[in-house]
Amino acid sequence: MPTPKLLTTAQAAAHLGIDRRTLARYARQGLLTPTPALPTGHHRWELGDIRRRLRELRERGTVA
């Protein structure tokens, strides 16, 4: 299985159609977890993981 491509917060947000600040806020709130957070504090995201997690959160009514 190929290694998933890790995206910056801005790249992941663009793929999801949300603002990068929204994605960063979800991370701060513990709703989403970056994969991994770099020692510099910058996040990297695996698109499939965050899509799956956002779908779960929407089903529960946690996010719009």
Automatic annotation (TrEMBL):
InterPro entries: DNA-bd_dom_put_sf, HTH_17
Domain Helix-turn-helix: 6-56
Regions crossing the membrane: none
SUPFAM superfamilies referenced in this protein's UniProt entry, alphabetically: Putative DNA-binding domain
A Pfam family annotated for this UniProt entry: HTH_17
Organism domain of life: Bacteria
Protein name (Swiss-Prot/TrEMBL): Helix-turn-helix domain-containing protein
Taxonomic lineage: Bacteria, Bacillati, Actinomycetota, Actinomycetes, Pseudonocardiales
